[in-house]
Structures are given as structure tokens and as C-alpha cells.
Design a protein that fits this description.
Helix content is about 80%, strand content about 0%. By secondary structure, it is an all-alpha fold. Helix 3 (about 70-100) runs antiparallel to helix 17 (about 370-410).
Length: about 475
């Protein structure tokens, strides 16, 4: 039977009172159309959020000697937004249920005006370094947008479509990184490095447009509620933290490399700002475009399998980068580094698809079936996504701090890349040991909660998550 959807003016916004995407008739007749519309405008807002979050990866390219900021200081500047953005992802996750997905998208988009205006005010020689740090930290609000957007879209789609939908949502957001870098390249190439405010002149009206379109075309889902019990249960579940470790390796790599790429090129290979800007956008662009492919491959072949092979490939690409870094070969370095971007994007899609699948498998292992199992999976996966996304974003902070120390002490990025190689090897081992080794059918229900589905004991069947 088709579940009706009624949109009412409640709490000042458009609210859909009933939503059941797992009902195939409802999905075919109403749900898919509504979900697609919300996905489209969620992508737009998240895209601009990512652009503002990565703003300082562009601003540092405008900061010549007259700004008085050394390379180590610039790496710390681009690290600040990742720290703030990672922390904000937790409250942003719960804001969707508190305010409604549409309403919070409007609010979070409008908040992007604060760091954009602040950057336009301070971007000039003579500004103190501490002021730059504060303004860079403000751009962290753009990183929080990802968590609320993903939580919102996760509620709109059925399990069988989550990989593709979440991949599109995240990929469309991620592509905000190379887009702002392309705009920075255009400004440097035409107006010169003395005009950073032109970048902000492009984004200030776009922020307003995103907020207005979200107000006009998005919906709130009334059935989505903050569940303190689910949040606590997700925080206690070992899989939340295991997936956080894996997401550091994929998304942490993507955002960390995106913010640092231009500075690495300038300091490792003595590129000018224009030369660095002409290359910086390529990796983030390809990594963003391929993220939905990672989700689709995970839908088809299982997220754990795709993630395992992806980490192995990231380790191989890192070996290429280490070799090129030691040999000072820019062409080989670019091949390896861009491969890392592509693989991090692919892994972003596969790891995020694993999250709802893991909790669905846990539901089956507990003897739950049908809507009861689906409800359990939605509760736990939605609650865990904010934590996993936050920890993954902090991986970007780790990457930029690693580069800072590497260039400060060794005047090269090679030691940092060696440490990244070790991390990808660790992620490969964890993925195999927890989600693929000795894959067995889920145990039959005993009528009691099954405690064996934690990583320390016997697993449900996770190979297809």
C-alpha cells in the first residue's frame, strides 16, 4: 500500500509527514521524484560549502613574500578549517532532525557568508597571522555542511539506492574543492596574485542563491527524529570507530591532499603560484567525479571488497609518490599524486556505502526482519555517519600537520608520504580482518540480542556491505 506524503506548514517550513522509501510502490509513485529534487539542491548547497571550506587552499597561493607567512605557517593555515569542520560535523548531524533537512540547509548555507565576508576584509599584506588563523577557522562551517547533507539524504533513499545517492551527494559537494581552485587559477592568471578578493566576489552571490533555492525546493522529513539512544549506541559500537579509521584513509586523504596540493608543489618543486594553481585542481576534480562510481561499485560488488582493493591501490600510488619525491621528478609525482586523489574519491564512495550495510547486517544477525531491521539500520547508520564523517575530516588535519613537520624538518614531503603509506597498509589489514576474513552467514536468532556481531567476536556476513 502506498504511504501518503503530506506536506504541511509546520515550524515555518515544508514538512513531509510520512516517508517510507523501502515501500517499492511508494518509491516508484512518489518517493523517487521527491528524493531526487532534494538531492539536487542538497548537492548545490554542499558544493558551495566545500568551496568555502577549502577557500584557504586558494588564498595561500595569493600570499606572496609581502604577507610574511612562511611555508610551515601556510600549512597550518590550511589545517585550521579541517579541524573546525571536523568538530562541527557532529552537531550538524543532529541539526537535521532538530530543525528539518530543508530548514537546516537554508541556515547552514547562510552561515557561509560569515567566513566569505571575513576573508574579503582581511586578505591584504599587513594583516596579522593570528587574524588569518581566526578567519581560516571560520571557514570550517563549510565542512560541517557535509555531515548534515549526508544525514539528510540518507533518510530520503532506500538501502538499495543509498550507495549511488550518497556518492552523488558527496561527489557533487567534493567537486566544490576543484571549482574554487579553478576560479583561483582564473583570477591569478588574469588579474594577478594581488587580487584575492575577486574569488570572494564570485562566491558571495552564489551563497545567497543556494540558500534561496533550498528554501523554495527542498523538504523536511517529519519522521526523522534525533535519537539520543541511537547516538549513544552508535558511539559504543566498535564498527563506528573502525569505519572512522577507514574514512580517515579515504576522505581524510582527499580533503587533506586537496588543501595541501598547491603548497606541496610550490615547496617540493619550486612552482610559482600560477604554475601551482594550474595543477592543483586536477586531482580534487577527478577524485570528486569518481566518488559516485565508488558508491555504485559498492552497491554491486560489496563495499568491503572495493575498499580493500582501493587501499591496496592507494599504497601502491603512494610508493610512486615517494619515489618521485626522492628523485624530484614532477611528471612521475603528478601521476602518483593524481592517482591518490582518484583512489581516495573511489574509496570515499565505497566506505560510506559500507555504513548502512554494516548496521543492516547487524540487524539481521540480531534476528530482525523487514521494516524492523530496516528501521534499526537507519537509526544506527544515521547516528554513526556524523561521528565517522567528523573523524574522517580530522584526517585532513593530520595530513596537513604531517606535511608541515615534514617540510619544516626535512625540507621535503617524503617523510610525510612514507607515514601515509603505512596508514594505507593498516587500513587494508583492518578491512580484510574485520569485514572479509572468514565471512560466514549471520547466526540464527535466539530471541536475545546477539553480542557476537562485534569485531572482537564472530561476525555477521559483511562482505556485501
Amino acid at each position: 500500500m502506498t504511504a501518503p506524503t503530506t506536506t504541511a506548514a509546520r515550524k515555518g517550513g515544508r514538512w513531509i509527514e510520512q516517508w517510507d522509501p523501502e515501500d517499492e510502490t511508494f518509491w516508484r509513485e512518489q518517493g523517487e521524484r521527491i528524493a531526487t529534487r532534494n538531492l539536487a539542491f542538497s548537492i548545490l548547497s554542499e558544493h558551495i560549502g566545500f568551496s568555502i571550506w577549502s577557500l584557504w587552499s586558494v588564498m595561500v597561493l595569493f600570499m606572496g613574500p609581502e604577507y610574511g607567512v612562511d611555508p610551515a605557517g601556510k600549512f597550518f593555515l590550511v589545517a585550521m578549517p579541517t579541524l573546525v569542520g571536523g568538530v562541527l560535523r557532529v552537531p550538524y548531524t543532529f541539526a537535521v532532525a532538530r530543525f528539518g533537512g530543508r530548514n537546516w540547509t537554508i541556515i547552514s548555507a547562510g552561515m557561509l557568508l560569515v567566513p566569505a565576508i571575513a576573508a574579503a576584509v582581511v586578505m591584504e599584506p599587513g594583516t596579522s597571522y593570528s587574524t588569518f588563523l581566526v578567519v581560516a577557522a571560520l571557514t570550517g562551517v563549510g565542512g560541517g555542511n557535509f555531515a548534515s547533507s549526508m544525514t539528510n539524504i540518507n533518510s530520503f533513499y532506500p538501502l538499495r539506492r543509498k550507495g549511488w545517492a550518497l556518492g552523488l551527494n558527496a561527489g557533487g559537494g567534493n567537486i566544490g574543492v576543484p571549482v574554487i581552485q579553478l576560479i583561483g587559477l582564473l583570477v591569478i592568471g588574469t588579474a594577478g596574485a594581488a587580487h584575492p578578493r575577486l574569488v570572494l566576489a564570485v562566491y558571495l552571490p552564489l551563497i545567497v542563491v543556494a540558500a534561496v533555492l533550498s528554501a523554495l525546493f527542498m523538504d523536511n522529513l517529519a519522521p526523522v527524529r534525533n535519537d539520543g539512544g541511537a547516538a549513544r549506541e552508535a558511539a559504543r559500537d566498535a564498527h563506528t570507530w573502525i569505519m572512522s579509521v577507514l574514512y580517515i584513509g579515504t576522505f581524510g586523504s582527499f580533503i587533506g591532499y586537496s588543501f595541501a596540493f598547491g603548497l606541496v608543489l610550490q615547496n617540493q618543486f619550486d612552482r610559482t603560484p600560477l604554475q601551482a594553481a594550474s595543477l592543483t585542481f586536477i586531482g580534487p576534480l577527478l577524485g570528486s567525479l569518481i566518488r559516485p562510481v565508488g558508491g555504485r561499485l559498492a552497491d554491486t560488488h560489496g563495499g568491503a571488497r572495493i575498499t580493500l582493493w582501493n587501499f591496496a591501490a592507494m599504497a601502491a600510488a603512494t610508493l610512486v609518490v615517494v619515489y618521485a619525491s626522492a628523485q624530484k621528478s614532477l611528471p612521475v609525482f603528478l601521476v602518483g599524486f593524481i592517482a591518490l586523489f582518484v583512489l581516495s574519491g573511489l574509496g570515499n564512495g565505497s566506505t560510506f556505502k559500507m555504513i548502512p550495510g554494516i548496521f543492516q547486517a547487524k540487524a539481521v544477525a540480531r534476528g530482525l526482519t523487514g521494516e524492523e531491521a530496516a528501521s534499526y539500520g537507519r537509526r544506527l547508520s544515521g547516528a554513526s555517519m556524523g561521528l565517522i564523517g567528523a573523524v574522517g575530516a580530522l584526517g585532513g588535519l593530520g595530513i596537513n600537520l604531517a606535511f608541515r613537520e615534514s617540510f619544516l624538518n626535512a625540507h621535503s614531503g617524503t617523510p610525510a608520504f612514507v607515514s601515509f603509506l603505512g596508514y594505507y597498509a593498516l587500513c587494508s589489514a583492518i578491512t580484510w580482518a574485520v569485514y572479509l576474513r572468514g565471512d560466514r552467514p549471520a547466526p540464527a536468532s535466539t530471541g536475545q540480542p546477539d553480542t557476537r556481531d562485534q569485531p572482537s567476536g564472530r561476525q555477521p556476513a559483511y562482505a556485501d556491505v
